[in-house]
Amino acid sequence: MTKPWPLPFWIAHRGAGKLAPENTLAAFRLGAAHGYRAFECDVRLSHDGRPFLLHDDKLNRTTSGRGPAGLLSWHELSRLDAGGWHSRAYAGEPIPSLETVAAYCRRNGFGLNLELKPNPGQDEETGRVVALAVRELWAGSERLPLLSSFKPAAVAAAQAAAPELPRGLLIDKARDSWTEEAKALGCSTVITNYALMDRAMVEAVHALGMKALVYTVNDESVARWLMANGLDGIITDTVDKFSPV
Ligand code: G3P
Ligand code: MG
Prior knowledge:
30% of the residues lie in helices and 18% in strands. It is of the alpha/beta class. The chain has a single domain, classed as Phosphatidylinositol (PI) phosphodiesterase (TIM Barrel, Alpha-Beta Barrel), CATH 3.20.20. It has an 8-stranded parallel barrel with strand order 1-2-4-5-6-7-8-9, surrounded by 6 helices. Helix 4 crosses helix 5.
């Protein structure tokens, strides 16, 4: 049976790669201005359990805050500047809540890949809370977000909480157990570091009835080679180089 699949081939990494502050709505808007209709972003939990976008465990690199992000409440996080570190044009850009991202993506009919990025020790909680929030925020939508993670425990918790949501297993380093893990998690896709993907891997993923995706491809010849090998999707930073239209 073919599982429902919510994403087009081209997916903008963290909104618009490095051209705008990652994981902000400003980045999504810039990605959309370059023709992108689907976005990858990183989601974790505030101290009071609200899902919001941030890549790192700590606030230091991409916000005006300091220390572990999971120690702050959503009220505190929502007051930080997540754009000024990137460039002055984006100073004052806020951290988006999952709720805001849902409003933007649903209104525009955009696809979304939510990468579960648990704070330390929160793999299960993050999978469960994000899945339940997604169920509520995308209620009635025909284009549900894909939930993916490097942490099988987070994907498993999402599966248990909201089994109707599409899931993906992220793989950065080769391991033999990926087939069994992806099957047990009922994944719709396996998303690997592009260095691990070749025709044999694409075929192995397809044999499981799943889509084969890669991150983060920014080189044209690499993209062409992967496409010739039957790949189903690319997550990229270089939204100004690859035109999805
Ligand atoms: O979801 C794919 C990709 O984003 C994984 O790596 O570190 O950029 O979140 P990272
Ligand atoms: Mg990511």
